[in-house]
Write a structure and sequence with these properties.
The complex is a heterodimer of chains A (about 280) and B (about 250). By secondary structure, chain A is an all-alpha fold. Chain A is built from eleven helices and two strands, in the order αββαααααααααα. Chain A has one domain (about 40-275): MetI-like (MetI-like fold), CATH 1.10.3720.10. The longest helix of chain A has about 40 residues, at about 1-40. The radius of gyration of chain A is 23 Å and the shape is globular. The N and C termini of chain A lie far apart (about 50 Å). Chain B is built from ten helices and ten strands. Chain B has about 250 residues and is an alpha/beta fold. The chains are: A mainly alpha (about 280), B alpha/beta (about 250). The interface of A and B includes residues 164 and 175 of A.
Chain lengths: ~280, ~250
């Protein structure tokens, strides 16, 4: 009887584990089947579904521009914050900062978008010109959204270094900052790289927040104040009413996005393993 | 004049007192062994000499430590300079995740030595003094982590020597090493005392007997007695020292 129970519970857990993997497989198959017919037709520069033009290059450029902007703003801030938390912050301050940063990760993305629309967009419109709905606005909002990922993973990378690196270096008469810059950061490099790549992965996949602040114009941008559309927002905006070839083109967009994120995540895995 | 004078040193972690009223004179160019059972405050004592306990927020010290007659806690003392003058080797080898060359060159380089030739010279000299040069001279660029434990520890000795310190503190430097590596380190220590003042926490009484000029026995944070090594190991004044040396406890 006991043996039977053991076997049964093993089977149940296996079935549940299998179901979560199979969902991944199903989604992949679904997207590929729906999008594959149009995959060859999405290489163009112009997106105008009513006239049968399904080029997603502007969206690819939009995604890359917004993500790059988010990384340029978010990565330095995130890494500095992680160094501060791991090395300089007094215990009490750390105990306030850490949960606060985790809370940042829990805010729904539409709230970030709404906040960006109410504060960042008008700020850019008033001080830098243009409509305000722009790459810059999207980058700022995304930069804040990827901070928790970058900070917490980099901080763990720094804290998990053997303590003797630091003691050894300080005993050699190096200052705290020299120790961090010349020893701890290089030693934690792979963890910090992984943090950055995962942050970027999050930025690429984000939809709701950027829908509200990018303006969503399908055009190749000429400055950081231009309005753009990303791959995710394109799907988010049009999928509700799309039919036929249009719908298939959106699924093809999904394939492109899927592949981009797969590449980014495997890059992160590779960087961590290479260590 | 003595290299280091310690007057009535008391040391606390939070409320726990780990060193009681310790006064000691450390002579230049001698090897002083500070020995005793574990938890006697020996590591804390060594770390107080280069102020490495500054890292521990709950630590508190009373008393006076003079290096060449100057208080090491004086406001105008640079911590960087103090730690360069009073170098430290730890109980486990602590190579940094760098090449052999960079491990030794790390301190001098960040101390401002730029020229590669000068660095090379310093590194070679330090590795020779630590009796490691012959084993690694052809592979200075490999990661220090790939050396054996004994070689890593000698590398750590070389790393400290490259800073041209005046005092070298060694905290049970041979505790994880095989007898041959231990012998090599002991041999180089006896050579090194010509140029440096050495304070060592030996990993056992036998080692203390082999290498020391002076010896100090510590027990539960107290300095029981300090004398020439010959006296301590042949004819200790205090019965507790005698009991420990003869193996009745500890």
């Amino acid at each position: 009887m006991i043996k039977f129970k053991e076997k049964l519970s093993g089977r149940i857990f296996f079935a549940l584990a299998l179901s979560s993997i199979s969902v991944l497989a199903l989604i992949t198959v679904f997207i590929v089947v729906k999008g594959a017919p149009m995959l060859g037709a999405v290489g163009g520069l112009s997106w105008d579904p009513e006239y049968g033009e399904f080029g997603i290059i502007p969206m690819v450029i939009g995604t890359l521009a917004v993500t790059l902007g988010a990384a340029v703003i978010g990565v330095p801030v995130g890494i500095c914050c992680a160094i501060f938390l791991a090395e300089f912050a007094p215990l009490k301050m750390r105990n306030i900062f850490r949960p606060a940063i985790q809370l940042l990760a829990g805010i729904p993305s539409v709230v970030y978008g709404f906040w960006g629309l109410m504060f960042i967009v008008p700020f850019i419109r008033d001080h830098l010109g243009g409509a305000g709905l722009s790459i810059l606005a999207g980058s700022v909002v995304l930069a804040i959204m990827i901070l928790p990922t970058i900070i917490s993973i980099s901080e763990v990378a720094l804290l998990s270094l053997p303590p003797h690196y630091k003691t050894g270096s300080l005993a050699l008469g190096l200052t705290h900052w020299q120790t961090i810059y010349h020893l701890m950061l290089p030693a934690a490099k792979s963890g910090i790289m992984a943090a950055v790549i995962l942050g970027i992965g999050r930025a690429v996949g984000e939809t709701m927040a950027v829908i509200l602040v990018l303006g969503n114009a399908v055009a190749i941008p000429d400055s950081i104040l231009s309005s753009v559309r990303t791959l995710t927002t394109s799907i988010g905006i049009e999928m509700g009413y799309a039919e036929g070839m249009h719908q298939e083109a959106l699924f093809a967009t999904g394939i492109v996005l899927f592949v981009m994120i797969m590449i980014i995540n495997s890059l992160a895995q590779y960087v961590v393993r290479k260590k | 004049m003595n290299k280091i004078s310690i007057e009535r040193l008391n040391f606390f972690y939070k409320d726990k007192q780990v060193i009681r009223d310790l006064s000691l004179e450390i002579e230049a160019n001698k090897i002083l062994s500070v020995f005793g059972p574990s938890n006697s405050g020996i590591t804390t004592f060594l770390r107080s000499l280069n102020r490495l306990y500054d890292l521990v927020p709950e630590a508190r010290m009373e008393g006076l430590i003079l290096l060449d007659g100057k208080d090491i806690h004086a406001k105008d003392v640079s911590l960087t300079e103090l730690r360069r003058r009073v170098g430290m080797v730890f109980d486990v080898p602590t190579p940094l995740p760098l090449s052999i060359f960079d491990n030794v060159a790390y301190g001098p380089r960040l101390g401002g030595v730029k020229s590669r030739a000068k660095l090379m010279e310093t590194v070679e000299e330090a590795l020779r003094m630590a009796a490691l040069w012959d084993e690694v001279q052809n592979r200075l660029d490999i990661p220090a982590m790939s050396l054996s434990g004994g070689q890593q520890q000698r590398l750590c000795v070389a790393r400290v020597l490259a800073l041209k310190p005046e005092v070298v503190l060694l905290d049970r430097p041979c505790s994880g090493l095989d007898p041959i590596s231990t012998a090599k380190i002991e041999e180089s220590l006896c050579e090194l005392k010509k140029r440096f003042t050495i304070v060592i926490a030996p990993h056992n009484v036998q080692q203390a007997g082999r290498i020391s000029d002076r010896a100090a026995f510590m027990l539960s944070g107290e300095l029981v007695e300090e004398d020439s090594a010959q006296m301590i190991f042949s004819n200790p004044k205090n019965s507790r020292t005698n009991d420990y040396i003869t193996g009745r406890f500890g």
